[in-house]
């Protein structure tokens, strides 16, 4: 059975939409996602955490340039302006540190 061109286009558009939604799964209020990257904002307080792309990231400590996070049970240290670090199947890099919160870029 042949599928007409309009039906193929609709099927392709639907498949693209489903894939896009799958990539955004796990993004909450403190997470802003695009197709291949999320920006995560975490409060600088004890027990603050966020779920991003199915992985939990917990705030551990921070100073003005370095942040320590617990990602999927592994502690990582991010330094502003330094190379990204892989943990929990994702790549993390530090965007900013303020007295109230940290902002981290996360990608697959």
Question: How would you describe this protein?
Answer:
- With 108 residues, the chain is α+β, with helices and mostly antiparallel strands.
- It has one domain (5-107).
- Helices cover 19% and strands 48% of the residues.
- The chain contains 1 helix and 9 strands, in the order αβββββββββ.
- The strands form 2 sheets. The chain has a 5-stranded antiparallel beta sheet with strand order 1-2-9-8-7, with no helix packed on it. It has a 4-stranded antiparallel beta sheet with strand order 3-4-5-6, with no helix packed on it.
- Strand 7 and strand 8 form a beta hairpin.
- The longest helix is centred in the first third of the chain and has 20 residues, at 5-24.
- The chain is globular and about 30 Å long.
- Mean pLDDT is 78; it is low at 8-28.
Question: What are the SSEs and their pairings?
Answer:
Elements: H1 5-24, E1 31-33, E2 37-43, E3 49-52, E4 55-62, E5 66-71, E6 74-79, E7 85-87, E8 90-97, E9 101-107
Antiparallel strand pairs: 1-2, 2-9, 3-4, 4-5, 5-6, 7-8, 8-9
What are the main properties of this structure?
four-stranded antiparallel sheet; 19% helix; 108 residues; alpha+beta; globular; 1 helix; five-stranded antiparallel sheet
